Amino acid sequence: MPITYTSGEQVEVYRFSIPVTIGVPLIALFLQAFLPRRLTFFAYLDLPLLVTIFFAMARRNPIAGLLTGAAIGLTQDCLSPGPIGVYGIAKTVVGFAASSLGAKIDAENAGTRALLTLAFYLLHGVVYFGVARWLLSLSQRFSWSHGVVAGIANAVLGVGLYFLLDKLKQRT
Amino acid sequence: MESVLSRYRNLIILVGVLFLQVLGLAVQVKRSSDAQGTRLIRIWAVDAITPMEKGLVALQNGSGNLWHNYLYLRGVRAENRELKEQIEQMRLKEVRLSEDAAQAQRLQSLLSFKEQYITRTVAAQVIGSSGSDLSRGIYIDKGSDEGVQPDMAVITAGGIVGKVLRVYPSTALVLMINDQSSGVGVILQKSRLQGVLAGTPNGEVMMKEVMSDEQVSPGENLLTSGGDQIFPKGLPVGTIAKVGAPKDLFLSITVKPSANLDRLEEVLVVLQKQEKQAVAVDAPRARAADILAQRLPSVPQQPAAVPAAGAVAAASSGAKNTAPVSGAQAGHAEGAEQTAVRSAGDSSATAKPPIADPPATSKKLTSPAVAPQTAKPRASASQPKTSAPQSATPAPPDADTPH
To answer: pTM higher than 0.80 for the full model?
Structure first.
């Protein structure tokens, strides 16, 4: 049972059933594709990213985290008109960072989760922008103000979503 | 060595996974993925997501139809009446427009112009988006099974939407005109300046490649130029919203698309378009007045003496009797039908009769059998131009409708 310790405090590692591991990201991807056509503000939210962060932080295993991020990101790429790999790279980095951080700190309370979600949203945006701009020469524009506002919106949604998803956790 | 590998195992795997993805990106960029067939991984992803979207859209439509078609029918009769009136008005307008179109075709045939016609379309429903704020793509519920292929134009009644980018068996991904990788050949309706329409990262639509010394004014309409070989010429694109300061010798022109790209529900995919030379149609021209006359009930049988007397009276009065009537056409909507039918035999014979609901009493004066015959000799002699637009774009709904 892999358990890590931080400052003497025990941090629990969780696992998820196979239906949850596959079903939750698929539902997130489906909602991300379906809802923005009906609810315009939903375009600012990134449900697949929130799910990536949640799974990565709950599992607290960097390899599992980066693979989860890569899988979700690549699937998201497949649905978009652009080349496959841009979201994949961004979410791989976020998955790795979230699980690495999750192994060191206890991110169970709402405030910590909100702050981490905001930080990971910005990290995701920076990596996405970098890949699109420097690797693909796409004329992407990165706006910090837009990023922070969208990040706060994602953080608020994320806190609610994480508490819902907490019910699907299984103790190792 | 082994301890180093195990110590940095996570980091090495991260670098490996990232490297593989960067390699994949490089391969795609080098091969120009649009020209390639659809990748299997995309088909899997789309097959996993779109059935849910289709199901939810069908459920949404079903419940919406149940409510709108069976439960919420308030005001339907009044709406039906209004729509019937609109149809009458539009039929008359159609006659006038077809007159202009026929003239345009005659001119085009004289100049040996070739024109593109949309010959086959398929209606499709928008079931989802690409799920990214940074790219503008939509999924439609028609795919290769229905004959959809890449690079087909996607339009609505309002204007163009985009082109088909990728096709799957039962769905297709449409790249919208506000995506930054899209490009559409466009032309300004009045000044006939050509340019390229492209999207921006934040979803705006810009007209590019217009030199800074050109005059472009906000509000001007934009049409497809046909130069991209995807969209047929003359489809509405949008209007100029803003003309900004020139950048690098080119104007910065923001366009407001005609189609509401954020609220698309149904679209048309242009399956087939045909290029053929315009041929002048020599068929006798149907005029609004004639059409209207034919649509009215016929004159009831009357005793033989009465029509004879009427005919004599009409013959003796000649054009004098009709002249005041045609003059009254210009601004009076009342008794419009009477005016319109009578004008068919008039020398001035304006091609633009007033359109209004026919009063019941005026029907007695109509003579469908006479109107077309008397109209023919003079119709071609003097045919004042209507205010209908000369271009291929349809007129705005109220452009010619008297109130």
So the answer is: no
